[in-house]
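Morning - nicotinamide-adenine-dinucleotide inputs below, output right after.
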Amino acid sequence: MEIAGTTAFITGGASGIGFGIAQRLLANGARLVLADIRQDHLDEAKQFFEERQQGRNVHTIRLDVSDREQMREAAKECEAVMGGPEILVNNAGIDPSGPFEQATYQDWDYGLAINLMGPINGIMEFAPGMRRRGKGGHIVNTASLAGLTPMPSQMAIYAVAKAGVITLTESMRDSMAKDNIGCTVLMPGPIKSRIHESGQNRPDRFRQGSGLRENEEQLAQRVVSDTWMEPTEVGDMIVDAIRHNKLYVATHGNWKEQVEARFKAMIDAMPEAKPFDFGASLSVPKKED
Ligand SMILES: NC(=O)c1ccc[n+]([C@@H]2O[C@H](COP(=O)([O-])OP(=O)(O)OC[C@H]3O[C@@H](n4cnc5c(N)ncnc54)[C@H](O)[C@@H]3O)[C@@H](O)[C@H]2O)c1
């Protein structure tokens, strides 16, 4: 699809990968609505674009992607202020990692509410408008290579959510295609960002009863390496994926062997195929491409 003249709504759009995507979409002619839980990130992003005389093409909304009411209101505000969106980027996320045996229900609820339900809430609140407007469009969901590569228990909450985002994107694709809406799942490796500040971004209702506070404090000390990828480079990959409706974007090739070994082990675990009847009530999706 053509990006010029569209509106892009980007969650977590005021920092890191989301902000990199925002910059590249704007450079390709899109208007932006940046949604983020952090007012300081939104103010910084707005100032960045104002300094480049692009402020009138950027609107900011403070929201928490795990709050469905706020997401619903944001969809209305986006349509009223900027029109659209034709492009939805469900990108906001946090790092809820820590010792598996210390994670509480509160940590699981928090990690899944932001990293998995966040994209689902975005789709539930924005896709009906995208369909209604009839202009087609594109949805990008940010997962992670951690959703595909076997992960240590320390990363379990994160990996479960990100694996869900990959499957979500794959499985919604045929439904979205009916309305000419393309889908991309972004699976980044290490990218320069402020995800180490996740502890600051944990909504208040998920704070009490967490078992991972110490881990969040350690994470806050993590130094962003020069060897990690620039977010605008990811932004360029997303521009290309939207233009050509690419389902998968992986930023790094470093874990190919592990992913291959994982799928090989799963396939090896499968017995020889035998024909059987799915039954009339179950339809198997047609292979469209
Ligand atoms: N940076 C990496 O190496 C990396 C790798 C793989 C996947 N990812 C994923 O990329 C996405 C973006 O992360 P990033 O690394 O750019 O981090 P980041 O912290 O720089 O950016 C994320 C933004 O999302 C916002 N945010 C956090 N919780 C929110 C909420 N509940 N509602 C709305 N906004 C919220 C933050 O304030 C921040 O501005 C995340 O989904 C993350 O899991 C990042």
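Note: The chain has a mean pLDDT of 96.

O.
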